[in-house]
């Protein structure tokens, strides 16, 4: 069964794109065919994590939205050797980094229904098992419609009061939209914090399951988005937590 997974956060700076890239890679390492779409069109950037230079991106999701190509023509094969050896495939549909394209989106908007139809096209044309959607932070029409068609929603939050308040609103909306599977990922947790107590407090507060608790990592800060963290640090706590979350989705 093909699945659409949205990765979302109420606020920026939560590590959403990093988690999306690493989680998609972890699922592909199980032998699955996986796609990732950058729908953070106003502030794109996930392509950097997959090693795509701006100059390599000759077409972007923006071109599909403005009827210049089919969405499968924007899919770049970005499978690292580890994924290929595992029998998986990883594709990325990036958003444009060109200032003119971003300005057009901000000024004119785009057809959200066309974007959602593109998700089905990708699943079919690339024969994907999973499609991950890297959303724009916050609550807007585009994000809500993408969440509404998702099989799973992963909400990222930090142990921060503002994140808690925003996440509560997002969860309420997601439940009204009828999202079948909701998981929380608590990111940038200090190693000194009581993880068991944090998990219990968050799950009780939101009446939702925590899929992963991810510690604040100096190693990730040093890496600086120059690659997929879990491939460079296979024994790291972050990598193990992401792998467990990937297992939940695959078995889910």
From TrEMBL:
Record-annotated AAA domain positions: 3-161
Residue intervals passing through the bilayer: none
Cited InterPro entries: AAA_dom (IPR025669), DNA_Partitioning_ATPase (IPR050678), P-loop_NTPase (IPR027417)
A Pfam family this chain is assigned to: AAA_31
Protein name per its UniProtKB record: AAA domain-containing protein
Organism: Gemmata massiliana
């Amino acid at each position: 069964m093909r699945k659409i997974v949205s990765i979302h956060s109420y606020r920026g700076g939560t590590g959403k794109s990093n988690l999306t890239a690493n989680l998609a890679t972890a699922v592909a390492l199980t032998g699955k065919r996986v796609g990732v779409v950058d729908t953070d069109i106003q502030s794109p950037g996930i392509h950097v994590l997959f090693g795509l230079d701006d100059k390599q991106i000759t077409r972007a999701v923006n071109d599909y939205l403005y009827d210049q190509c089919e969405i499968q023509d924007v899919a770049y094969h970005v499978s690292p050797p580890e994924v290929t050896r595992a029998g998986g495939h990883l594709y990325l549909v990036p958003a444009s980094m060109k200032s003119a394209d971003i300005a057009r989106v901000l000024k004119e908007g785009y057809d959200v229904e066309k974007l959602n139809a593109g998700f089905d096209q990708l699943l079919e044309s690339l024969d994907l098992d999973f499609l991950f959607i890297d959303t724009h932070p916050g609550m807007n029409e585009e994000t809500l419609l993408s969440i509404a068609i998702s099989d799973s929603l992963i909400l990222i939050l930090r142990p921060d009061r503002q994140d808690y308040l925003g996440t509560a609103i997002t969860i309420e909306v997601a439940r009204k939209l009828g999202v079948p599977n909701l998981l929380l990922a608590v990111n940038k947790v200090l190693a000194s914090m009581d993880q068991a107590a944090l998990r219990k407090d968050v799950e009780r507060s939101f009446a939702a399951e925590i899929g992963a608790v991810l510690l604040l990592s100096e190693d990730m800060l040093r890496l600086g988005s120059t690659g997929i963290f879990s491939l460079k640090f296979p024994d790291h706590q972050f990598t193990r937590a992401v792998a467990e979350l990937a297992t939940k989705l695959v078995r889910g």
